Amino acid sequence: MWYLSEVTVGLALFDDEMPLEEKRNVVANLRSMEGSEEPPPKVCVEEADLDNKTVASFVTKNTEKFLDLLDIDKGFLDVDPAMWGTNPMYQAGARRVRGLLVTNDAAERRFH
After folding, report:
1. Is residue 1 part of a domain?
2. Structure confidence at residue 20 as a pLDDT band (50, 70, 90)
């Protein structure tokens, strides 16, 4: 949960193991759920509430900022997720996401 925010949850759009219906819910929330005016760096949720949450529960209109930051064309969002695998905009975005470098937080702190 440390790295989950209204913005970074956008990574889930490119998860091949996420069920199609959940991806549809993510897109629906991305278009309809208002987010925080200044999205916090991580979501705050009680552990007891996690059983009632899905990935889509954390998605808001702010999630589009993830796509903007990575310069990913959002046009694929207008296509049903079942077709994303053959969509050139989605494929380009997926390549960009797979190319992200991940920094281990513990290692990062050691050098600061």
Report:
1. no
2. very high
Output the six-digit token pair for 13: 């759009």
Does residue 3 sit within a domain? Answer: no
* Residue 51 forms part of a structural domain: yes
The residue whose two tokens read 């705050």 is 44
pTM: 0.77
Residue 69 CA to residue 66 CA, distance in Å, equals 5
Nearest to 24 by CA among 96, 78, 86, 97: 78
pLDDT tens figures, 51-86: 777 888 888 898 999 999 999 999 999 999 999 999
